[in-house]
Amino acid sequence: MKKLTDYKEWTEAEAKLNELKTERDRIEAELTELYSRSKPSGVDKLTAAAEILLSGGQAVAPTGEGYEKRLNELHGRKRVVLKAVEIHERAMKDLRAKLSAEICRELKPQYRKIVQRVADAAMALDAAMQAEKDFRDQLFQADIAYAGHLVPTVFHGVGTLDDDNSRISQFFQEARSAGYLSSIQ
Q: Which residues form a coiled coil (predicted)?
């Protein structure tokens, strides 16, 4: 069965979203590190800045103008990335709907065959349930006390096709309405 991941545009969109989320996570990690180092405990400011540089961050003093500038840059970049994630997720939602509709159009004939098999089985079940009911009715009409000798095994909950409100009738109504079955079934 086809999947969204079979479509290049979907996998590219997923890759872009992952890329954006990775960038967001990187920014958040750097912000966390900057905030945690802004008040170093027992470590001088120069050592704190050197540790930031060693861990892959920007080498700025943990306080002062460079620190504030880097914080502002990161917060600005984070807002942009978050907005990009939001826009891209919306676009992916639309793409998912479009591709899903395309896949469902392709799969509809296959699904129609499955619904037809269910309908055939439902018709056979209805006929068998009617035969079972008719058999018990004949025993009753012949004044045969069958209780205790022939235990009725009624299939409860399905109803009959004679009852428009039964579950079996509702199945046929829904299947016809969806175009899976002809109106004569």
A: 10-37
